[in-house]
Amino acid sequence: MSLRTADTARTAGTARTAGTARAVAPRRRGRYGAPAVLLAPFLTLFTAATLVPIGYAVYLSLFTEHRSGLGFGPVQTVFTGLGNYTRALGDPVFRGGFTTIAEYCLLYIPVMVGLSLTVALLLDSALARAKRFFQLALFLPHAVPGIIAALIWAYLYTPGISPVVGALGSAGVHVDLLGHPLPAVVNMAVWEWTGYNMVIFFAGLQALPREVLEAALVDGAGPLRTALSIKLPLIKASITMVCLFTLIGSLQLFTEPMILQGASSQVTTNWTPNMFAYSAAFGRNDYGLAAASSVMLALAAAALSFIVTRVTRTRSERRTEAAR
Amino acid sequence: MSTHRTARRRVLRLAAVLTTSALSISLLAACGSSGGGSASSSASSHGPVTITFWAWAKGTQQVVDAFNASHKDVHVDFEQIPSGVAGGYAKISDAVKAGNAPDLFNVEYAALPDFVSQGAVQDITSLVPAGLKAKYLPQSVEQTTLGGSTWALPLDAAPQALFYRKDLFAKAGITTPPTTWADYQADAVKLKAAEPNTRIGTFFPDDPSTLEAFAWQNGAHWFSSSGDTWKIAVDSPATKKVADYWDGLVSKDLVRVQTSFSQQWTASLQKGETAAYLGAAWGGGVLQGTVAGAPGNAGNWAVAPVPTWDGQPASGMLGGSTFAVSKDSQKAQAAVEFATWATTTPQGIQARIASGTSSMFPADPELLPAAKAAFNTSFYGGQDIYAVFTAASKTIVQGWQWGPGLSVTNSTLKDAFAKLGQGGTIDGALGSAQSATVSDLGTLGLKVAQ
Predict the structure, then answer these.
(1) In whole angstroms, what is the distance from residue A186 CA to residue B163 CA?
(2) What CATH number should be reported for the domain whose range is A86-323?
(3) CB contact under 8 A, B404 and A71
(4) Å from A181 to nearest chain B CA?
(5) Among the four A247, A317, B297, B433, which has the fewest Cβ within 10 Å?
(6) Is ipTM beyond 0.95?
(7) B116: closest CA of chain A, how far (Å)
C-alpha cells in the first residue's frame, strides 16, 4: 500500500515537473492545487491522530482532581496551572526513569550499532556467502511483534522453566537474568533491532561508489583497512541517523520492561518515564500527572531530535559547501 | 530554488519532530477519547433488561449462565477481564472515564475505596434493604460501607489459610502444621535441612496484599478515619513486627522471593521446591488449578489455619471481591438483582464452586453447605477444607478499614520490595509507603493526620 502511494506520488511529481517545463499557466494552478490534494490525507490524519491528542494532553496536564470529606463524595476537577509539572519533576521516581534510560542507552546503543555495523560490513565484504539468506535471517527477529518477543524472552529468562537457564545451571553456570533487568531488556532490544539497522547500513554500503573501493584496493588496503578507513566514514550519515532514531526510540522504552514486570519484581512500576506516565494514568488514575509527564517526555524527545538534526546538518552542509 | 528546498526541508524536519513527540503522547491520548455512552435508553417494557458485567473471579461464566437460564427479566452479558492488579482495574476505570463502563463489575474490598473516591461507583444504599445486608458477614458489610453509604454487595469473605504439602512436611519430620509464626520459622528450617532446595513459602514482592493481611491479623490499622480526617498508620509497630519477621525469613533464605502467580512460582510449587502457600480461602481453587496436573501434588495438599503470633487463632482478610454498580449505569436495579442472586442464593454459589476452579468462602454464611457440597476435595485428600475456612472466618479481626490512596501505597511498597536482597528491607518499604500515601491523600485534597 505504502509502496503504491510512493509510486503515485513520484508519478505525480514527474508529471508536474514535465508540466512546468512545457507551460507557465498550468503551473500556476498546479502549484498549490496538487500539493494540497496530495498532502490533505496526511494532514487530516496528522491533525486527528497527532495534533489533537497533543493538545488534549496539554489541556489535561493543567488540571487535577480534588475530593472533599473522606473522599467518597463528588469529585471536582480544578485548574492547577503547572502544578502537575512541578509534581512530576519533584518526584525522584520520575527523574529516576530518565537515569534508567540513560544507562540503557549507554549499554544498548554501542552494542547494537556495533553489532549491526559488523554484520553489515561482513555481508558487504567479498567473503560473504549466501547474503540473501543471512540478510533475511538477521532481519527476521524484527518481524516478530515486540510484545510476543518480550513474552518469549521473559520465558527464556525465568529460572525453573527456562531451558537456557536450566542448561547453564547443569553446566555449573548460575545466572540470574531476572535479577538484572537492564541487561535483560538491552538483550531483547539488541535481538530485535540489530537486523533492522543492519539492513540500513548494508543499503548504505551497497550504494558506495565502487571506484573508491577499487582505488583503495589498488592502494593496497586490505579488507579490514577498507572497512575501517573507507566504508565507515562514507556511511557516517547512516550511522548518525540510526543512533538518533535509536536514542529517541529509547526514550519511549515501554513494552519490554512492562512485560518483564510480570516475571521480575526488579522492574518497578516506574522504571522508565513512559511507565511512570502509564502507572500514573492507569494505576493511580492521576490523569493530570500522567499527561504532564508525557508532555515533558515528548518535549525531551523533540529537543533531542532537534539538537541532533541541527548538529548533523551543519556538519554535512559544511562539507557540501566545502565541496562546492 | 535553494531557499525553497531549505524551507521544505525545514517543514519536513518539523513534521518529523512532531511525529516523534506524538508517539509518546498517543499512548495516553488513546484512553482519553470518550466513546459513546453505553447507557443506552432503558430497555422497552417488554423483554429482559440486558446488563453488562465485567469480572475475573473464577467460575463467573458458570454463574452468569445459570442466572440467564433461570431469569426472564434480566439478561447478563458477561465479559471476562484480567484480574484487577493485572490490568483489570485500569480497564474498568478507563471505561468509566470514557463513558462506556459496564453496568456491574467485580472489585476487591481493598480497591473499593479508590473506586468510590474516583467517583466510579454508584451509591446503592437505597437498593439494598436491611434484610439483605443482614445476610452477609459483618466484616464484609463493614468493608462495603464507606462514609455511611453502601457501595457494593460482598461476594466472598477471604479468611487466610495455610496450604501445605503433607508429604513434604512429613519427610522433614513435621507432624502438625505450624500454629505460631515461631513454629512456621522452625518448620522452614527443618524443610530446608531435609531438602536443601525446598522452602516453606514465598514472599511476593509484586503484591503487598499478603503482607497487608498479616498486618491486619496482627491488629494494625493502616487506614482509619475520624470525622472527615484520615489517619494513616502503615508503619505502625503492629506492622513493623510483621515486616521484621519476614525480613528475617528473607535474609536467612528460608522463603523464596518470587512474583505471585508467576511461571516461576508455579514451577517451584509443581516441583515441590516450595512446600506451602500462605493464601486465603479462594486460593484453594487457584492452587488446585495451578498445580493439580503435576505429579505428586494431587491428594498431597492440605489446609490449616494461618499461623498466629500467640497461638490464638486470628485471621486477616486476603482479597475478597464485591459487586459494584458503575456510576453512570441506568440499570442499577437490574444489576443489584443479579448481584443479590449471585451472592445470596445456593444456585449462585453452587454454579461457581461446581466449576471446579473456585473455593471461595461465601460472604453469606447460609451458603456454606451449598459451597461445601459443590467443592470436590480430592485434591486435598478429602479434607473438609470449608470447615477450616469457616473456623478462620470467625476469627477475622474486626475494625480494619481500607482507604483511598491504597493504589499509591501498594505501588510504593512494590517498588521498594524490588530492592529486597540489594540493601532494601520490608521494614524500610513501610516508611516510604507511609509518606507516599500521606502525600497522595494531600494531593487529592483530603485531610490527613499521621
Answers:
(1) 39
(2) 1.10.3720.10
(3) yes
(4) 11
(5) A317
(6) no
(7) 6
Nearest CA in chain B to A267: B418
Dihedral sign, CA of B126, B127, B130, B134? negative
Of A253, A258, A246, which is closest to residue A150 (Cα–Cα)?
A: A258
Amino acid identity, position B366 = E
Tens digits of per-residue pLDDT, A136-195? 898 999 999 988 999 999 999 988 788 888 888 888 888 888 888 899 999 999 999 999
| Contact flag B22-A299 (C-beta cutoff 8 Å) | no
Q: Which three cell numbers stand for residue A150?
A: 518480550
Give all domains of chain B, ordered by start, each with its CATH number: 49-158+318-382 (3.40.190.10), 160-317+399-449 (3.40.190.10)
Check A87 against B443: CB less than 8 A apart: yes
Q: In terms of DSSP H, where are the helices of B100-236? A: 112-118, 130-135, 138-144, 166-171, 181-194, 209-217
Taking alpha carbons only, the member of B156, B199, B176, B169 closest to residue B285 is: B156
What φ, ψ does residue B260 adopt, rounded to 5°?
A: -65, 140
**Could you read off the pLDDT of B392-443 as tens digits, one per residue?**
999 999 989 999 989 999 989 998 998 887 889 999 999 999 999 999 999 8
Give the C-alpha separation, B352 to B364, whole Å.
14
Alpha helices in B313-384 (DSSP H): 332-344, 346-354, 368-374
Whether the CB-CB separation of A114 and A108 falls below 8 Å is answered with no
Percentages helix, strand, coil for chain B (3-state, rounded to 5) are 50, 15, 35
Q: Is A49 in contact with B26 (Cβ distance < 8 A)? A: yes
So where are chain A's domains?
A: 86-323
Q: What are phi and psi of B248, to 5 degrees?
A: -65, -45
The pTM of this model reads 0.80
Cell 535479577, residue located: A179
